[in-house]
Amino acid sequence: MSDHHHKETFVTKYIFSQDHKMISKQFLVTGMFMGIIAVLMSMLFRLQLAWPDTSFSIVEAFLGRHQTDGIMSPDIYLALVTIHGTIMVFFVLTAGLSGTFSNLLIPLQIGARDMASGFLNMISYWLFFLSSVIMVISLFVEAGPASAGWTIYPPLSALPQAIPGSGAGMTLWLVSMSIFIASSLIGALNYIVTVLNLRTKGMKMTRLPLTIWAFFITAIIGVVSFPVLLSAALLLVFDRSFGTSFYLSDIFISGEVLHYQGGSPVLFEHLFWFLGHPEVYIVLLPALGITSEIISTNSRKPIFGYRAMVMSIMAIAFLSTIVWGHHMFISGMNPFLGSVFTFTTLLIAIPSAVKAFNYVTTLWKGNLQLNPAMLFSIGLVSTFVTGGLTGLVLGDSALDINIHDTYFVVAHFHLVMGVSAIFGMYAGIYHWFPKMYGRMMNKTMGYWHFWITIICSYGVFWPMHFIGLAGLPRRYYSNTAFPMFNDLADINVVITIFALVGGAAQIIFLANYFISIYRGEKATQNPWKSNTLEWTTPVEHIHGNWPGKLPEVHRWAYDYSKRVDASDDDSDYLHGQDYVPQTTPLLEGEEPS
Predict the structure, then answer these.
(1) 51, 97, 179, 435: which has the fewest Cβ within 10 Å?
(2) Where is the segment annotated Disordered (predicted)?
(3) What is the pLDDT of residues 136-147, one digit of tens each?
C-alpha cells in the first residue's frame, strides 16, 4: 500500500476522503464550528442570568422571534441551555477528542498505514456531519428547539404538546442523536480493530503510548454504552409517535386525562445515565491520554508508573459502567441501592487519583518545557483535581440530596468534565498541529489563550460552588421571584463577566489556528523531540504514512533522558540525546522495555 499513490481529485482528497489524517481534520473543524454555536448560546443565557429582564440588542439580533424587546423568552432560555449542553457533550468534546485524535494518532502511533477500514471511517465522519446539520436545523423550527434539558427527561420530552420545545425541535434532536450514535459506534469499532490487528512489528500492547491505551479503552466504553442510549431514544420516539407508554403514566395536561398508563420516567433515567456517566469518561479518557504524552515529552522524563496508568484507565472504564445511579439519588431509589452507588462512586476516585498522582510525579524535578500544549496539560491536571474533589461530595447520597440540581452540580461537572476535556483538546491541537498541517502555531498567542482561559474558567465555575451551596437552583430562567437569593445576584454578574471574557478569548485560538495553517512557521519533522512513531513520518502527508516499509519498534514510548553507565559523574545521555525514539534498536546489555 506504500506505493498506492493514485491521482486524487479535490472531492476524494478533501471531502469524501478515506485518509485518517484528513478525516481527523474534518472532525476537528466541524467540532470547532459546533463549539462556536454552543459558546454563543452560553453567553446569551448568561446575560439573562446576570441581568434578568434587561433588554439587549444582541439578544434581538440572534434570537429574532424568540424574544420581546430584546428580552429572551423563558422557553428559548430552556432551549439554549438544552442545546448548549447537547452540543458541548456530544458534538464538541466527543468529536473533538475521540473523532479527531483517535483518527489522527491511532494509525500513526501504532505504525499502521491507515485505519482498518477507510470507507467505514469516512462513513463515520459523514454521519457525524449529518447529525450536526440536523441539530443546527432544529434551532430554526417554528416552535423552537428541544428544551427539556440535555438529559431530555420525560414526560416533557415524551409529550409533543407539553411545552413548545417538545414538538418538532425534540423530534429533530432524537433523529440527530440517533445518527450521532451510529457514527460513534462505527468509529469505535474501527478504532478497536485497528489497535488489535494493525500494530507494526515490535509494537506490543505494553509498548503502546498511553494515548493509544486511552483511545482504545474509550472505544470499548462507547461500544458498551452507546447502544443503551439509542434504545432509550427509540423507546422515547415510540412514546411520542406511536402511543406506547414506556415512560408515561397517569398524565394530566390542562385538566385533560391522557390515556397513558403503566410506564415510568425513572426507566428513562436508568437507560440515559447508563450511557450518561460512561460518557464522562468517553470525553475525559482521551484528554487524559493526550496529557500523559504531552507531560512526559515536555518534562523530558519517562511517564511515572506506566503500568499503573494503564490499569487505572481499565479500572475507570469498568467502574464507570456501575456508578450511573449517583445521578438519581433523589429519584426515589431504595436507600440500600443508593449506598451501593455511593460505594462504587467513591471507589472510582482511586484510579482517578492514581492518574493525578502520576502526572504530578512525572512533572516533579522534570526539565519542563512550558509551551502552550504543556500549559494546557498542567491546567487539565489542576481542573481534574479541583473538579474531582467536589465529586466526592456529590457521590455521597446523604450530601447529594441537599445540593442536587443546584449550581454546585453545574460547577462540578463543568470543571471535571467540560474544562478538563477542552484543555486536553487544546493541548492536543497545539502539540500535534505540526503533524496535521506541517506548520507551528504561534506561541505568544497560545500563552495569551491559555492564561485568559484558565483564569476565566475558574472565575466562572469556582463561585458557582458557593451559590450552589446557598441553594440556588440550576436551569431557572430568573431568580428574582425568590427574595432569599437576592444576595447572590452580584455573584451571577461576576460569573457572567468572566464567561463573556473567556468566550471572547477563544477568538485568539481560532485566529491562531486558521492563520497558522497558511502562515505559521514551517515545522521540522520532530519539533518536540518526541519518541513516538508519528514523528518518524515525513512532514508532507502521504496516504500510507510511511514512504517505504513500516517502522519496527524496539522499546516503549517514554525513554527520555536515559543515561548510559559511566565511570565519571558526567555520564552522557543514551545515543547523545535526551530522547530515544521507539525505532532505535537496543544497545548491547540494555534492558528491553
Answers:
(1) 51
(2) 568-593
(3) 999 999 888 999
